[in-house]
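Good day; I would like, with your permission, to put a structural problem before you. What I wish to show you is a protein chain and, alongside it, a tokenised description of its three-dimensional fold. Thank you for your consideration; the sequence and its tokens are set out here:
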Amino acid sequence: MREEPDLGRPRGRVPPGQVLTEGFPVLHAGTVPRDLRPGNWSLRIHGAVARPQELRFTDLLTLSRTDEVADIHCVTSWSKLGTRWAGVAFSEIDQRAKPAPEVGFVVTECEQGFTTSLPLATLREPGVLLAFEYDGKPLPAEHGGPVRMLVPQRYFYKSAKWLRGLRFVKEDEPGFWEVRGYSNIADPWQGLRYDVDDVRLIHRMRKQNLFQPLG
């Protein structure tokens, strides 16, 4: 387990433009897939890998468990410090899959067809999990259970909810929110919330009430 951050000294841990919250807001597009449970959940690992495979929830539990304490930052401007998670480190999945040398990105595929993507190098950073517990309890459906990604280095929409697949690819494939104007980099410390070229599109979509912000 990584060393817990100093919870008594939040200054310096909150990115510009963020506001601390004691709660855990529930933000997403679409509906919560209540019928997705550990008993029928599976994860497809595929793409440019030497060992494509499919893991069931019971398979995931046989892998090395990692406990993580992380600060999380939502693109809608809230931050929550010292959140407690448990799951399987992405590095373990990476080692099992054996991606080809030309792989540069991983597309996270989610229930209901949502996707997002991140550089493989980012997912290999410390603290990135396939999370199945939050605050000592099974991850609830509204927060992405039974399994979601945890990528604390990026805005929280990159920590994809209701994870169902990891596809290793050579070229980037921006996902649901990114093609709608959200930043593909999503670095909270640089304040990269939106693709500046698509700000007009975002404002137009908001006026038409076409989407809700994603946490």
Summary: The chain has a mean pLDDT of 89. Residues 199-207 form the longest helix (9 residues). The radius of gyration is 17 Å.
